What does this fold into?
Amino acid sequence: MYRGQSVCIIVPAYNEARQIERVIRSIPVMVDHIVVVNDGSRDHTGDVVRGLQADFPQTVLIEHDVNQGCGGALATGYKWARDQGIDIAVRMDGDGQMDPADLPALLDPIVEHRAHYAKGNRLFSGEAFRRIPKVRYFGNAFLSLLTKIASGYWHVADFQSGYTAICRSALHTIDWDRMYKQYGQPNDLLVRLNVYNYRVVDVPIDPVYNVGETSGMKISRIVFSLSWLLIKLFFWRMKEKYVIRDFHPLIFFYALGGIFGLSTLALGVRVVSFRLAAGYFPPTSSLALMFAFMSTSLFTLFAMWFDMEANKDLKGLPELRSLVAECRQDRALLANGSEPAPGPGSGAASCADPRLL
Ligand SMILES: Nc1nc2c(ncn2[C@@H]2O[C@H](COP(=O)(O)OP(=O)(O)O)[C@@H](O)[C@H]2O)c(=O)[nH]1
Ligand SMILES: [Mg+2]
It folds into this structure.
């Protein structure tokens, strides 16, 4: 138990016979269950885990006969946690890339009801650019931008990070059978969490590389499939969140942005081919192109802004401790006859927090 809540660590493992023992041994004793999902490994991962069960009886081994992919292994683990009524489920990979020292930082926002889902962010660390392989770093940055647009969580980053903790309510709400089974799983899950208005918080963690892991993910290979997945998820979220469950006019802004975007493309092709064939820019089409381009930018940027506004309450709440400290500071200022500084983050605003009343 951690601060009165049951915790289960889900370890997706595919051919991790060399690494898995170290991972299991490193998990702190406060964790109630370690659920290793052996995703049809071709090495003896399963035997290693079975050998450790005598020393670590909290370890549960679930075996997939057929390999399902990292997301598929996680879905199995999450369903187990849901069915056992676990309070918090944490994903920790079988290759040792997640440092158990970061666990409390991931669990605290959930235990304190500040967020429903906490994820590690390796980019806060000044070390990220140096430690993460460059192709992966830039691929990750591009996919992060797409994921912000698709998921509506504009305040989070490092979406490929798999070190995450999820609360009991979300465990029961998400349809795990529909979650993406491959490497886009963290991105897919965020879009689903957003549709149900769950609060998500980023927690700074250190990037861990060169601990003996062999990654099966080639960012250059997944960048296209993941971009396509994110485009589909974006349309799904717009429909679910702003048409079916609630209504928001931002969908008209996105739609107009899309229509003008297509017109910009068509007019661009026309203007360039005219220039190549006849040697000059057709004036009317060129003007129309400029108008279409400006309209695309404006409609799309406004749509993004509205989306950001609609999701601003889904940031994790600040720590109660810091709110109380700010409140005390402001009260001291008021007692001395001076005005506390207004604005977000100031104690004056925070004192209105319902948890302090
Ligand atoms: N490559 C791969 N990893 C899987 C699969 N199923 C489960 N996993 C586990 O998923 C975790 C993340 O995979 P990894 O290749 O390390 O991804 P990366 O850390 O993002 O590069 C590891 O613990 C794997 O053992 C699978 O089908 N393929
Ligand atoms: Mg890994």
